[in-house]
Design a protein that fits this description.
Strand content: 5-15%
Distance between the termini: 96 Å
Shape: elongated
Structural class: alpha/beta
């Protein structure tokens, strides 16, 4: 190894021998080394001493001395720095002293002059001030010039301008360059002779230091306090690095010296990154600061050890040096700071050891404080803090809001379902909390299509990270189980505002908990439902589904399964689960119809699709002459299919639905296997339809923006496009405003909220301003309150009992969404079911403001757990009992969240009733219960079933219970064999329509993203006809506004209904005993324009032995050859009957009675044959075509 013998280690090499203690001197100078055994001196020549004995001769080359004397000049380099530093410091102090003395003298002279001015009087003031003013102006001009230069220099070094930022960054970069040159030169001797004109690194270093000198001048000019500037770290670095370079050029030699001080410039690294706008967060700035201070201190200390160890101590004549490379010194400092101290490398010089003593004190403290903090900052850095990189040709969506294992797993299960065909969409989750291990594992299982980033949508920087501006949509999930729904909605609304503020054109689909909070979304200027923005209100849909079960039990289960993606589960055993799961695998899809269907009526196309294509079409998107689009559900035979019509289908997967687009009469007319119907090259496939289909399915909203205007009622778009029969039907209704239902012959007793209605008059407001709902003048809550005795004396029958748990502090659940579907205007007034609320009056008072405009509503203050209250409202005679709770989310234990609802349900099921009480009370009051004509015997067939007087046990009372926790469904039915881990849709209570959980609505997020018309169709089916116009009105007044009956509002009543058709008797009785479902489908469609879509079957109907069980389950879209049984109830869509209010005025209405032979009967209604009404024969045969149905509003 090479090292300096003393300070001039560059020209001498010292070697020691184990045999001789003689030192071999190769120094060109006259330095002498003492031997441990003899005092002989080596000559000044370059000869090598031969050791005694047989030692080998080691040839050593040496450098040519810079001069004949071989003198070392390290002191000259050090002196240049010291003279510069102390000389400048002396000048600054001298200048300050002189300035201070001058200020003191001038201050005293100024006071003397002021006294003279006062004594001389005012007459001499003008003459004496003139020369003084001239001097002051000259001084001011001088100060102004100096100030401008100082300001310019300050701007240049403060990075306030682009030039200043470039200069600051350039200085830092050149400082790092100079440090790199030091690292390169550290492999050479400490002092060596170098020619400036031949040494390239010296030339570069010289150029760098000239720039540093100019920058030092700028800093000096800009400094306000020159003394502190002279003593700051950057100035000291310049003093000990810049002057030695000029000395090197003059002496033609180089001294490594204190050039390691350039490492202190690393302290400014964080400032430079902030200038470049790279560091933005406090944690990143702090981390870079700690790292830069630690590394710069480490490298600087290593440079000092490298200098003194390779040079030696001056008082030892530089003889105790040791050869250490710079990186060995770096290693030495690290093991010293960490208190490890291996001992393989250590300091030998006194200066080095003295420095190590002080460095251990400071370095150990710095290591112990900085390193843990650095590790903590690095460890706390967001694991998911990167940015999303968009993949070309692949869309992505951003999902935010309530991100948990449950919500994410439910969303992914539905969004990535295999039945959706190929989903070429990447899902980006954004949440401000890092995922737990289970959620992280879920993301890893879907790593090809799912990415997670930690951040908040309220932060524009995080929105930029997930590329929200290029996202196809943003989905916001809500916490359905939060204790404060209004606060959760406010959070999601703020998320919408933040996202829309960042990118107004982004499509947003958000979940909302409370219906009244949807109004706040309308206040956002860029919120536009026509462009795909949607708000899925869970309370609105949840209560809407429950309301449908009040009208036709089981329909809520069927609809919930239709928009949820379920895989087909095959069961070989002949059980009820086999038929139920076959229907569960059906979902709702949309597809454009083939041009082969153009010009055909809707029933014709519907029958062809069902028989030929094995598809069930329930609705279409109809475009009027002004290109306005609406969704028409089973519109009837008056409507003809247009080119490019969008159909709504019920099928098991998306591939099956494509048959409706590929179908060609010329190519596929003789095909019996629907799987063979594929794309053909026939020219009958119109180019327009083909181009519409092959567009990106996710851009449907952009192609048909007007398709969002679909919630308007089904009415005539243009009279010229309808058949004469349709014109006459609607025209007759509009010309007869008095055709509304009249009073029943046997009316129930007058009870609070049950207003009597006279013949319709255009001057009386009976519907809301949109004509979609029945309306009455606001009523005070005291007028509708029933005491227990009043309720007991009033014979209630065919009504809806709503058991509600809540108190003053409970969150409102929005009972208006439950009542509105039950008050739809396409029901005649006598068909409306009376609604009785049983619960806390304090809670119901808070809800009453939204309910006081609906007729036939009463309140019984009490508790649903009181059997006396339940008997008072005749719960055994009700059509449906709804059990709701507003206290569910106030309990932390999920298994106890549904305790009130479960206890109420079990309480009702355990009740026993006297089968004669209901009839006796009815006769004593002169009232016949609805569904039972006084002129007919008690066992007269109604809905094709034998009527029994009343229900004797609570098990047979129709109940639907709302649940928060899906697993609690196991407690509702004690006779089922459901496993606690069974999914909700596979349990018996859900399949029978007796339980409903809000979790089933999670699938609507995915369904709405893929096709925004699906949400509109579902809302039309369950909400009773809520339109965007109605929502805007409710947002304005928070109440329905009454309106006068006009032809336009009355036309809104012409909407499709859902009915349950009994097969035991009536026009379809011949098909009920072993007939095929397909024959029933075709007969109902051809004869009555009635569209069948499911069966509500007794649970044990498949058993050969009779069973007393009255539970039913849902079968969705059975195949053509499915065998029917006499006890089946058929779900069907039927046309609105304008004459039902007049021709059936003497009959009362009850909708639930047909569900089992042990339940009470419903009223009798006719099936309107709208297509053949004008030409039907007036004979007994035509009157025989009456059917018994259980009606419900669609």
């Amino acid at each position: 190894s090479s090292g300096g013998g003393g300070g001039g280690g560059g020209s001498s090499l010292r070697m020691s021998s184990n045999i001789h203690a003689n030192h071999l001197s190769l120094d060109a100078s006259s330095s002498s080394s003492s031997s441990s055994s003899s005092s002989s001196s080596s000559s000044s020549s370059s000869s090598v001493h031969e050791p005694k004995m047989d030692a080998l001769i080691i040839p050593v080359t040496m450098e040519v001395p810079c001069d004949s004397r071989g003198q070392r000049m390290w002191w000259a380099f050090l002196a240049s720095s010291m003279v510069t530093f102390f000389g400048g410091l002396f000048i600054i102090l001298l200048w300050r002293t002189l300035k201070y003395l001058w200020t003191v003298c001038c201050h005293c002279g100024g006071k003397t002059k002021e006294a003279q001015k006062i004594n001389n009087g005012s007459s001499q003031v003008d003459g004496t001030l003139k020369p003084v003013d001239e001097k002051e102006e000259a001084v001011a001009a001088e100060v102004g010039w100096m100030t401008s230069v100082k300001d310019w220099a300050g701007v240049m070094i403060s990075a306030q301008t682009l030039t200043g930022r470039v200069l600051v960054v350039l200085v830092f970069a050149l400082s790092i360059g100079a440090l790199v040159i030091y690292f390169i030169d550290s492999s050479n001797p400490i002092e060596s002779c170098q020619n400036f004109y031949k040494d390239f690194t010296l030339q570069i270093d010289m150029a760098f230091n000239v720039f540093f000198l100019l920058y030092f001048g700028l800093r000096f000019i800009a400094a306000n306090d020159k003394l502190w500037f002279w003593l700051e770290v950057n100035s000291v670095v310049d003093f000990f690095t810049v002057p030695p370079v000029f000395v090197s050029v003059y002496l033609n030699r180089s001294w490594l010296g204190l050039r390691f001080l350039r490492a202190l410039r690393l302290i400014q690294f964080s400032e430079i990154l902030q200038f470049l706008n790279i560091l933005k967060t406090s944690n990143s700035i702090k981390l870079v600061n700690l790292l830069s201070i630690f590394i710069s201190t480490w490298l600087t200390a290593a440079g000092f050890i490298h200098l003194v160890e390779n040079s030696g101590d001056p008082w030892e004549n530089f003889q105790n040096n040791q050869a250490l490379t710079y990186w060995e010194c770096v290693y030495l400092l690290m093991v010293t700071m960490s208190t490890v101290g291996y001992g393989d490398v250590y300091a030998k010089t006194t200066l080095g050891r003295l420095f190590m003593v002080f460095f251990i004190l400071g370095g150990l403290a710095m290591f112990a404080s900085y390193v843990p903090e650095i590790i903590e900052l690095i460890g706390n850095r967001k694991k998911y803090g990167g940015s999303y990189s968009a993949v070309s040709g692949r869309k992505h969506i951003v999902v935010c809001g309530h991100i948990t294992l449950e919500s994410v797993s439910n969303f992914l299960k539905d969004f990535l379902h295999k039945d959706r065909d190929d989903v070429n969409v990447e899902i980006v989750f954004l949440h401000n909390i890092s995922p737990n291990l289970e959620l992280e594992a879920l993301f890893k299982r879907h790593f090809t299509q799912v990415e997670f980033y930690q951040g908040s949508v309220l932060n524009p920087h995080d929105l930029a990270r997930v590329k929200i501006e290029s996202a196809d949509a943003c989905l916001i999930l809500a916490n359905k189980y939060c204790a404060d729904p209004d606060a959760e909605d406010a959070s999601n609304i703020m998320r919408v505002i933040s996202i829309k503020n960042y990118h107004p054109k982004i499509r947003i689909i958000t979940q909302m908990l409370q219906y009244h909070n949807k109004a706040h979304l309308l206040n956002i200027p860029s919120w536009n439902w026509k462009e795909g923005d949607d708000a899925i209100c869970l309370a609105e849909l949840k209560l809407g589904f429950i309301a449908q079960s009040c009208l036709a039990q089981g329909l809520s289960t069927m609809l919930a399964n239709l928009f949820s993606m379920r895989s087909f589960i095959k069961i070989e055993e002949d059980t009820w689960q086999k038929y139920y799961l076959e229907g569960v695998s059906n979902e709702m899809y949309t597809e454009y119809l083939s041009s082969a269907f153009v010009g055909l009526s809707f029933p014709t196309v519907c029958e062809l699709c069902f028989v030929k294509l094995k598809l069930l079409m329930i609705a279409i998107e109809y475009k009027s002459a002004n290109r306005e689009s609406r969704i028409l559900i089973n519109p009837g035979n008056h409507l003809k299919i247009q080119e490019g019509t969008l159909g709504f289908f019920i099928a098991s997967d998306a591939k099956e639905v494509k048959r409706a687009f590929f179908y060609c009469k010329a190519c596929h007319d003789d095909i019996t296997d629907p799987k063979r119907i594929k794309k053909c090259g026939c020219k009958r496939l119109k180019v327009a339809a083909r181009s519409r289909y092959f567009k990106d399915p996710f851009e449907f909203k952009k192609e048909t923006p007007s398709s969002r205007l679909v919630t308007e009622p089904v009415e005539d778009e243009q009279p010229s496009t309808l058949s004469p029969k349709k014109k006459q039907r609607n025209g007759g209704m509009r010309n007869s405003p008095n055709s509304s239902p009249k009073l029943m012959r046997h009316d129930p007793l007058l009870i609070p909220g049950n207003d009597q209605i006279d013949n319709m008059d255009s001057n009386v407001k009976k519907y809301d301003s949109t004509g979609m709902f029945h309306w009455c003048a606001p009523k005070e809550i005291e007028k509708v309150i029933l005491t227990r005795s009043e309720a007991a004396m009033t014979v209630l029958s065919g009504h809806v009992v709503v058991c509600i748990f809540g108190d003053v502090s409970s969150a409102l659940i929005g009972l208006r969404n439950l009542v509105m579907p039950l008050r739809a205007s396409n029901f005649h007034y006598h068909e409306l079911k009376h609604i009785v609320f049983v619960g806390s009056i304090e809670y119901l008072k808070r809800e009453w403001e939204t309910l006081h405009n609906f007729p036939k509503v009463s309140i019984l203050p009490g508790t649903p757990l009181s059997r006396a209250d339940l008997r008072a409202v005749n719960i055994n005679l009700c059509d449906m009992c709804v059990i709701l709770s507003a206290n569910q989310n106030n309990i932390d234990d999920t298994s106890l969240q549904d305790k009130e609802c479960i206890l109420a349900s079990l309480n009702i099921k355990s009740m026993q009733f006297d089968d004669s009480i209901g009839v006796l009370q009815a006769n004593s009051q002169g009232f016949t219960p609805p569904g039972m004509d006084r002129s007919s015997p008690d066992n007269s067939p109604v809905h094709g079933m034998l009527r029994q007087p009343s229900i004797t046990t609570g098990v047979n009372i129709p109940i639907i219970t709302e649940l928060v926790n899906d697993t609690n469904v196991q407690f509702l039915d004690q006779d089922d064999d459901d496993d606690p881990d069974t999914e909700l849709y596979l349990t018996q209570p859900f399949a029978c329509g007796t339980a409903f959980a809000v979790s089933v609505l999670d699938s609507l997020m995915s369904a709405t993203y893929f096709n925004d018309n699906i949400l509109t169709l579902i809302r039309t089916l369950v909400t009773g006809g809520a339109t965007p116009e109605l929502e805007a009105l409710i947002a304005e007044e928070n109440a329905l506004r009454g309106g006068y009956s006009t032809p336009q509002t009355l036309a809104n009543r012409d909407r499709c209904r859902v009915a349950q058709l009994a097969l035991l008797d009536g026009p379809f009785a011949d098909l009920g005993d072993g007939g095929c479902y397909g024959d029933l489908f075709c007969k109902a469609l051809k004869t009555y324009n009635m569209l069948c879509f499911g069966i509500y079957r007794l649970r044990d109907a498949h058993l050969s032995t009779p069973s007393q069980c009255t539970k039913r389950y849902v079968i969705t879209n059975p195949p053509y050859e499915f065998e029917l049984v006499p006890t089946d109830l058929i779900f069907c869509l039927m046309q609105f009957d304008h004459n039902a209010g007049q021709s059936r005025a003497s009959l009362s209405h009850s909708s639930h009675s047909s569900q089992s032979s042990s339940k009470k009967s419903s009223s009798v209604h006719s099936i309107p044959s709208t297509a053949n009404r004008q030409n039907r024969p007036k004979s007994r045969e035509s009157r025989d075509k009456q059917k018994y149905v259980q009606e419900e509003r669609l």
